[in-house]
Amino acid sequence: MKSLKYLVIVAIAIAAVISCSPDDDDPGIVIRDAREVFEEDLDSLTKFLSTHTWNSDELDDIDDGDDFEIEFSLIEDGDDSTPLIDQVETRTLTRDDIDYTYYILKAREGDGENSATFADSALVSYSGKLLDLTQFDNSINSLWFDLPSTIDGFAVALEEFKEADSSEPQDDGTINFNGSGIGAVFMPSGIAYFNGTPTGIPAYSPIIFTFKVRRVKTTDHDGDGIFSKFEDLNDDRDVRTGDIDNTDEDFILNNQGRRIGQRFNYLDEDDDNDGIPTRDENPDPNGDGNPEDAQDSDNDGIPDYLDDATDVTTS
Known about the structure:
Blueprint: H1 4-18, H2 34-51, E1 52-54, H3 56-59, E2 72-74, E3 89-95, E4 98-108, E5 121-130, E6 135-146, H4 152-158, E7 166-169, E8 175-178, E9 181-187, E10 207-217, E11 251-253, E12 259-262
Antiparallel strand pairs: 1-2, 3-4, 4-9, 5-6, 5-10, 7-8, 9-10, 11-12
């Protein structure tokens, strides 16, 4: 069994290939136009949703809060089942100037109080399928995911579901959750693996994930006192948008001193690289993790923790 975390590592590696020169591309994978691929994916997704349904009647037969497995099936001739296209909610996520359409199916929103954001962590059980319903990945046991490290379509889908409202340890060491958010996301390859080919997923494949949200955790990855969701400086639901989300434009270095990636603000303990840790520049006076009240000593409109020209006296 593979985990989504493993697949994401593969996808990140493929993304690095895309950014290289043509001579560096994998000769076995043709780099296609992303907008053209999206149009094809959207057509495939629409056809799937128009010809398939899900086992909603079984959900009606279980006790409130019990677990439930979403299953999809082809609508046969004479079957009056409601197609998925009439039950899903349409969403849009912009990446690289393309407004990607994806679809959310909500079997149960979730009975708990909290939802994750794209920048948080979530305890999830899940299954991944191609549009022919071939399963390429699943985890019956729940796994913690750092959502910024997963594919975009998965991370933003979980935002719409709440965690379970209760849990109970079992004698076999497992945990039963009650009231988990249960749903599915249908996404084009542009917010999935695009030209990446993790095991079981052909390049340019639109995919489906079904999932159950067990627990969520609001995350401050770098411990600087600012929740990571507030270090998305251009509000594009991505904490890794080039220099926009890397105020001081610094890098993560390996043991040989080579650059291996940008040190985005959500991973940077000193966001403006002025030698003073962000936490010591009063980024969140009221302590709620949101820097909207951050100190701005020189009143220039740039908070001290993002302003390398501001001298801050620490005590």
